[in-house]
Design a protein that fits this description.
The protein is about 50% helix and about 10% strand. With about 350 residues, it is α/β, with parallel strands linked by helices. It has one domain: TIM Barrel, CATH 3.20.20. The protein has a 7-stranded parallel beta sheet. It has a two-stranded antiparallel ribbon with strand order 2-3. The chain is globular and about 55 Å long. The model has no long low-confidence stretch (mean pLDDT about 95). Bound molecules: coproporphyrinogen III. The site of coproporphyrinogen III (CP3) has 22 residues, from loops.
Length: about 350
């Protein structure tokens, strides 16, 4: 697996073309996923390893992506820490809101990884089914900040006012919360690697809420706490931050091998700012996949032109949107696969 295109690109080695996959590639834009969802609710799907494995493999079989991100959700970790989680049909996640931060942090018990055994079992099944193919499994988790924000708000919100208020008013409790979450996130990622994940990605979906200085001061230590122990396992660590423009230099300091950036940045600028030594993952605007396939080819080619050196993993700048036509996703993937470095 170390010779797969994907792992080589993570290591900035010279490759014949950039590898390609899409965040949220296993999901609702695929009719084959929707068919399974007609009979099974989302959480049951995540917790049934055979089904989670089947859904993980759909984009590999249908689109020929170069990596298989395991089908799961970042919020299952919070459920395993004792917070009741629901997904309302057609809506987003719902958790019980936190009212007293200090008390909540004190009462949060350590992670019992056996509660997430279904994730590790799904990874083992996927690896068995991918035997002989050079397609690594990507394990993942939410970044401590993004998880903390969901704990405090209970759901997705417009500007995450409550979480930011807690951060400013109860800074030391907030930092303790990030530390506790970082320990759990690291343990969960390590177990995924032990089960066979060839790389791991940390999703900091709400990192863009914070200023550069605050992110560096409050969030960076928790990212290091997650990444340091994984580095010893020898698998690449990918850090995705939505709102990476103000945080690129901090992302570099986190110790991650691959910096995954959103669509607001140009790849040429990212390379200029971070220098050489880290791979870059990104970053086509997911809404560009609403264009005609011939225009998607053009946009994808423009993105690839911007980064001629090794160390690029082609991806979107955030997850693929649920109403994206499959043919449009295919246009993106095949443009990358036909590219010559
Ligand atoms: O990338 C993949 O294909 C693997 C699967 C995956 C899911 N969630 C499945 C999912 C991954 C990597 C995630 C990560 C995740 N989950 C993030 C970080 C990445 C990002 O997109 O910002 C976040 C913030 C969540 C929390 C979450 N889960 C929300 C806010 C929602 C509702 C909004 C939405 O996209 O539907 C979910 C539900 C969810 N997670 C679905 C899937 C396939 C939709 C469930 C369904 O109705 O079938």
């Amino acid at each position: 697996m170390k010779n797969s295109l994907f792992i080589q690109a993570c290591r900035c080695e010279k490759v014949s073309r950039p590898p390609v996959w899409m965040m949220r590639q296993a999901g609702r834009y695929l009719p084959q996923y929707r068919k399974i969802r007609e009979k099974t609710d989302f959480l049951t799907l995540c917790k049934t390893p055979e089904l989670a494995a089947e859904v993980t493999l759909q984009p590999v079989d249908i689109l020929g992506v170069d990596a298989a991100v395991i089908f799961s959700d970042i919020l299952l970790l919070l459920e395993a820490l004792g917070l009741p989680l629901k997904f309302e049909s057609g809506g987003g996640p719902k958790l019980d809101k936190v009212f007293y931060l200090g008390e909540t942090v004190r009462s949060l018990h350590p992670l019992d990884c056996s509660k997430l055994g279904f994730v590790y079992d799904a990874i083992k099944i996927v690896n068995r089914k991918l035997e002989g193919q050079q397609v690594p499994v990507i394990g993942f988790a939410g970044a401590p900040l993004t998880l903390a924000v969901y704990m405090i708000e209970g759901e997705t919100s417009r500007d995450f006012h409550r979480a930011r208020k807690f951060l400013m008013r109860e800074t030391s409790s907030f930092e303790k919360l990030l530390q506790k979450l970082a320990k759990a996130v690291a343990e969960h990622l390590i177990e995924q690697v032990r089960a066979g994940a060839g790389a791991v990605q940390i999703f900091d979906t709400w990192g863009g809420l914070l200023s550069r200085d605050l992110y560096k001061k409050i969030v960076l230590p928790s990212l290091r706490q997650v990444i340091d122990p994984i580095k010893t396992l020898g698998v690449p660590v990918i850090l995705y931050v939505n709102g990476s423009a103000q945080h690129l230099e901090t992302m570099k300091e986190s110790g991650a091998d691959v910096l995954s950036v959103d669509w607001r940045l140009s790849l040429a600028d990212v390379r200029k700012r971070i220098g050489y030594g880290h791979a870059i993952q990104g970053n086509l605007d997911p809404t560009y996949l609403y264009q005609h396939p011939s225009d998607i080819e053009k946009s994808t080619a423009e993105m690839l032109y911007m980064h001629p050196e090794p160390g690029l993993i082609a991806n979107l700048g955030h997850g693929i949107l649920p109403d994206t036509p499959v043919e449009n996703a295919r246009a993106f993937i095949s443009t990358v696969k036909n590219w010559k470095c």
